[in-house]
Amino acid sequence: MNARAKFQRHKGGKSTDKTLTFKERLAALRNLPMFFKMVWQTSPWMTVASSLLRIARSAMPVAILYIGKLIIDEVIFLSAHAVHSTEKLWTLVALEFLLAILSDGSSRLISLLDTLLGELFSNKTSIKIMEHAATLDLEQFEDATFYDKMERARQQTTGRSVLLSQTMGQVQDIISIIFFAAGLVVLSPWLILLLIVAVIPAFLGESHFNNKLYELYWGQTSERREVDYIRYLGASDETAKEVKVFGLSDFLIDKFRTIANKFYRDNKRIAVQRSAWGTVFAMMGSLGYYGAYIIIILRTINGQLSIGDLTFMAGSFRQLRGLLEGVLMRFTVVSQGAMYLTDLFEFFELKPRINNVAKPRPFPAKIEQGFVFENVSFKYMNSEKWAIRDLSFTLHATEKLALVGENGAGKTTLVKLLTRLYDPTEGRILLDGYDLRDYDLLQLRQHVGIIFQDFLRYQMNLSQNIAVGNIIEKDNTSLITSAAQQSLAHLLAEKLPAKYDQMLGKRFHNGVELSGGEWQKVALARAYMKHADLIILDEPTAALDARAEYEVFQRFADLTKGKSSVLISHRFSTVRMADRILVLEKGTLAEIGSHEELLEKNGRYAELFNLQAMGYR
Ligand SMILES: Nc1ncnc2c1ncn2[C@@H]1O[C@H](COP(=O)(O)OP(=O)(O)OP(=O)(O)O)[C@@H](O)[C@H]1O
Asked: Given the CA of residue 409, which atom of ligand 1 is nearest to it?
């Protein structure tokens, strides 16, 4: 089973066993070319400069050691003979000095380039993730598996810059090994073999434990998101109020502690095992090295090697051992990094289902017939229940339609279908005779203005908070102020110290917090930022006082004259202003008609209306 198939297997389930075979690790290396393509795209010149420097740097250790050998041999020669020309000796010393400086300088330059390239890469990937997330469906955002995937992808942005330097370092060290091996192979090929055999157990051990860690992290993704969420609940301006009055901090801390302790226990188990086995394996490596060292010493005593040869070989073996260990260990890190890349690439492979058809229709210049629901049913993903069932009705071109129904009746779902945040599971919605899915999605959203009951309170200034309704007009001050006038937000603006430039919310400096009704007026202004043909307000006046509500609706009625509008409200004073009222019950149409017609009918609407009216008597 390949890595992807395994991933698929975990979809929707709790991901706790992400075991990888050696073959899968190797297979993951196939991600590296794509990764380097991304790195290259980040900055071609930095990638080239870093690669060239690494190649040059990789030859330096062996060159320095070899010059060291020549120096020692020369010193011994000079001390044994009465020759006084030391020119060669000093030239060698100068050369070694120069190489040492170059080696140090190139290392620093490489690490500088890695840091810069890493940061650029991380920024670029973060932006790519945000861009891609923006193309995905609302439905995908409501799925926990999707969040896990996005979280793992997000982690890649910082983690992967490490992968970059690791992989490049790997190549550099492999070249160094080749240089060392070339120097040593002439003198004693068997000793190289001895070294290689000695470091293999350490490699296998590391590989095993890295694998275990990857599995562990993979399985912990959901819990890590939960920990992040608890941390946010425990320390955020938005949550502080409830956490305090409900006295939730101990509850949250306990929750945090339980998960954090579990992480600690799991990580500790692996860390202890890894450390114990690591010690044993390191001893084997040392045994190999000292075995080789003893052989070299014996051969020097026998006169087969010079003292210079001894220092060169001992040094070479020491470095070769370090390099070999490093390369083999890093193989697991690199392949694991490549494995994590699978998560990143899989995230980029996610495709939205709500898309444009090949040749989308332009949105009509003027809506003629309106929206027709034809036996529309809708079920949320991961839900067994129909949120909308077999719904048929027409929203006429210039009609003001109110949606009424108890909590969970499907009102918000219905307007989400109208804006194609979801597509119907069954049936279809027509606009002027054509399926909504045939229209250009972007144009559809541009022509529909919608304010949700759970609208966002952007921690930005007032002007931007209104402009989000049509962000391309963010600098159009006159449009923003006129939108504010329609929604009564202009009265609020006048009271604020910095007027339209006033930062709202408490998160940032000089922010002013608004009351619930004030926020609602700000959100309502967003609906007036564009000349939409259909305006949908989902409980737009719930937080408004009675006078504000009355005024808002007077204006709304004027502004939506000749346009379609949908109003969701639990307040019958609002609802009765609509041309027609659609009563939803458990996702189905219970009644539709004008206020008077429905009262006369004395059905569900009349019952709900009288129930509310009774409260006022
Ligand atoms: N994102 C979602 N995923 C799964 N089920 C959902 C989702 N949103 C809503 N539902 C379910 O769909 C049904 C209809 O919800 P909807 O939000 O449309 O009701 P509503 O009539 O707007 O209710 P309210 O008056 O409380 O705002 C409810 O049973 C709800 O639990």
From this structure: 21
Of 142, 379, 411, 575, which is best to mutate to test ligand 1, by the most ligand atoms within 8 angstroms of its C-beta?
411
Residue 416 CA: which ligand 1 atom is closest? 18
Please indicate whether residue 413, judged by its CB atom, sits closer than 6 Å to ligand 1.
yes
Determine the pLDDT at residue 137.
84
Report whether residue 412 contacts ligand 1, using a CB cutoff of 6 Å. yes
Instruction: Write out the residue limits of the CATH 3.40.50.300 domain(s) in the chain.
Output: 371-616
Q: Alpha-carbon distance 31 to 27, whole Å? A: 8
Centre of ligand 1 from the C-alpha of residue 417, in Å: 12
Residue 16: pLDDT band with limits 50, 70, 90:
very low
Question: What tens digit of pLDDT does each residue of 298-322 get?
Answer: 988 998 888 888 888 888 888 888 8
Whole-number pLDDT of residue 439: 93
Rounded to the nearest angstrom, the distance between the alpha carbon of 587 and the centre of ligand 1 is: 10
Taking the C-alpha atoms of residue 234 and residue 240, their distance in angstroms, rounded to an integer, is: 7
Which of 3.40.640.10, 3.90.550.10, 3.40.50.300, 3.30.70.1530 would CATH assign to domain 371-616? 3.40.50.300
**C-alpha–C-alpha distance, residues 148 and 347, integer Å:** 10
The ipTM assigned to this model is 0.97
- Hey, what's the torsion of the CAs at 531, 534, 536, 541, to 10 degrees? 60
How does the average pLDDT of the chain come out, rounded? 85
* β-strands 588-593, 580-585 pairing: antiparallel
Buried (b) or exposed (e) across 411-446, using 16+ Cβ within 10 A?
bbbbbbbbbbbbbbbebebbbbeeebbebbbeebeb
Average pLDDT over residues 566-577: 85
Q: What digits encode the pLDDT tens for the residues 135-146?
A: 888 888 877 778
**Half-sphere CA count of 346, side-chain side, radius 13 A:** 24
Check pocket membership of 407 for ligand 1, CB cut-off 6 A.
yes
* Shortest-distance atom of ligand 1 to CA 587: 14
Q: Phi and psi at residue 405, in whole multiples of 5°?
A: 165, 165
Nearest CA to ligand 1 atom 26: 407
pLDDT class of 14 with cuts at 50, 70, 90: very low
**71, containing H or E segment:** helix 44-80
Return the pLDDT at 4.
Answer: 38
- Which pLDDT tens digit goes with each residue over 30-73? 888 888 898 899 999 999 998 889 888 888 888 898 899 899 98
603 alpha carbon – ligand 1 mean position (Å) = 24
Ligand 1, atom 12: closest residue by C-alpha: 387
Query: Domain 28-349 belongs to what topology?
Result: ABC transporter transmembrane region fold (1.20.1560)
Which residue ranges does the chain devote to CATH 1.20.1560.10? 28-349
CA-closest candidate to residue 54, choices 199, 164, 184: 164
pLDDT at 2: 37
**pLDDT tens, position by position, 347-388:** 888 888 888 888 899 999 888 889 999 999 999 988 889 999
Q: Is 140 touching ligand 1 by the criterion CB < 6 Å? A: no
Burial code of 550-586, b = ≥16 C-beta within 10 A, e = fewer?
Answer: eebbeebeebbeebbbbbbbbbbebbbbbebbbbbee
**Does ligand 1 lie within 6 Å of residue 279's CB atom?**
no
Instruction: Find the 538 Cα to ligand 1 centroid distance in Å.
Output: 13
Q: Which of 378, 384, 413 to mutate to test the pocket of ligand 1 (most atoms within 8 A of CB)?
A: 413
